[in-house]
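RECORD TYPE: protein structure
NAME: FecR protein domain-containing protein
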Amino acid sequence: MSELKQHMTKVVRTIISHLKKNPVSANPLRKELLWYRIEKEIELKRLKRKRKLILCGSAAASVALLLASFLFFNRVPDENILAVAESIKELDPNTFKRKEILLQLGNNKEIMLNENEQVEYTNSGKLAINNTFVEQGEKETEKYNQVVVPMGKRIQLLLSDGTKMWVNSGSRVVYPIIFDKKKREIFVQGEVYLDVIEDKNRPFVVKTDQFDVNVLGTAFNISAYSDNSQSSVVLVRGKVNVTDRTKGVVIMKPNQFTAIKDGKAGITREVDVEKYICWKENLMIIQDDRMDEVFAKLKRYYGKEFVFTDKVAELQVSGKLDLKENLEDILKSISFSVPITYQENANKIIIDIK
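PREDICTED:
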């Protein structure tokens, strides 16, 4: 027992010393990951001691591992989905500008996909692409995959529990190849639509940087882009609980919309859910939306940057856009409804008032 105390005392003193010299300015998510790892390390040592498996050398290695996690916050994947997502967060800045969808396996193998690929996981966690099995690795640290969908692309996946997941443009999702026996967790940055298989013994949890969504079996849409000041949850059927970063909880019913800003959930309201989920059918429904909001969505779908004045931004437009059409036809359709002109210059779309 004294040996364990000595090692943990050394860890705590090292952390305190580091904090005094380098005050932590990490966001709440990173702090949560740090303390999660510390608690896991303490629990691991307690269990090892109980089983009489603690050796001096392995204890020293564990301490070194904990200190590395503390100093860098994000290097070693563990069973907490936030920690896993953080550990593989480093992406090439051009990843979202690629023409192909990236499926990154736990063994660091990268597979390039197009929108029409059939991606499915069996209930034993095996990956099949177009009905052909793919080797994923067998180590514990290789049990998580990540899909990154660039601008202008979308893809559908079947997860190992039978849940269907649609991933929108400019999004990344981290998920286990096979879910834990007690919980089902994924991490989302961007937008997804989920049709979750009911399992009362294993709640399904979607974690983002700003909030969590807890469900049993339901269908809902999450929009949580890192470059948007506001995120949202739209419930199609079933029931979900949204927990924000202030620990506030919102219980949602079908056909409701909840906005989350700066980590805090706002007022829930009734909406036409079709507007928020039609993207998976390559459609965009616009209902008196501001033009700057429309252009932000078109940027993700087509990978083009839009330049416009405040007067253009404030214009409102309604209609339905077919996102399978080319951008030229989309802009022409919009110009019939609002008084704008458009031209492309150096890969940017310049929008002016007529």
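COMMENT: Residues 28-50 form the longest helix (23 residues).
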